[in-house]
Amino acid sequence: MGRLLEELDYRPTPIGALSLRRRREARLDVDVIEIKLGDEHLMSDLFTESEVALGRLGIEAAAGPKLDVVVGGLGLGYTARAVLESARVAELMVVEYLAPVVEWHSTGLLPLGAELSADRRCRIVQADFFALAADEAGLDPDKPGRHFDAVLVDIDHSPDALLDGASAGFYTTDGLHTLSRHLVDDGVFGLWSNDGPDEVFVARLQAAFGAAWAEPVRFANPYNGETVTQTIYLARRTAR
Q1: 41 pairs with which residues across the strands?
Q2: Are 216 and 138 members of one domain?
Q3: At what angle do helices 173-180 and 199-209 cross, to 10 degrees?
Q4: Which of 18, 43, 120, 240 is 20 to 30 A away from residue 208, measured at CA?
């Protein structure tokens, strides 16, 4: 049995204090790894169904035998691992803004760090995803103008619940349209949301990409058994 609460690391960041904790959840008889930003819970390995769904659904929607993929937001690594489960993925670039999160993976402090580091297809870049998305040079700092088969994003809680107001422009029609320019024709954009499907946002995606839909992800809350509904938004860039 683990300690009731163990703080594994604590770091200041440009958007607040970041902490990595291992907590004993006595009600479920499990140890939980979680990341907090200030007093706000960012992620927990107790709830990973929709993060995994983002990776799997995004790859399923993408066409082609050799896929170049970007994941915006490393977190605990579940979306990245789900992407790498597909043999069609030739290269995965993960863009993470918070340097401590990158370090926690590279040093093995997070459970999936060693697995992601061992996969030669995976490259982790410490950078501001939203700044790269808005830049004409594109998402890969080493290859300006590069286009990707899929870009999958799990950073903010939802298009309306942001960790930092600086990312607000990304979720506008113009911001999403700019991101679409970094995709190949028929390339796929995927976005995780903690909330249920929002048809207004689907319409915004359609305006920016050409085709879009929402995939509800439902799972049982382990505390009370009630159904939780989160959303994976998907969009396809139509040929221009």
Answers
A1: 36
A2: yes
A3: 40
A4: 43
CA atoms within 13 A on the CB side of 218: 5
**Domain enclosing residue 14, as ranges:** 5-43
What's the predicted TM-score (pTM) here?
0.95
Counting the structural domains of the chain, the total is 2
- For the stretch 131-179, pLDDT in tens is 999 999 999 999 999 999 999 999 999 999 999 999 999 999 999 999 9
Classify each residue of 26-50 as buried b or exposed e, where b means 16 or more C-beta atoms within 10 Å of its C-beta.
eeeeeeebbbbbeeeebbbbbbbeb
User: Residue length, the chain?
Assistant: 240
Same domain assignment for residues 170 and 109: yes
DSSP string, 28-56: TTEEEEEEEETTEEEEETT--HHHHHHHH
Question: How many Å apart are CA 220 and CA 228, to the nearest integer?
Answer: 6
According to DSSP, the β-strands at 40-44 and 227-237 are unpaired
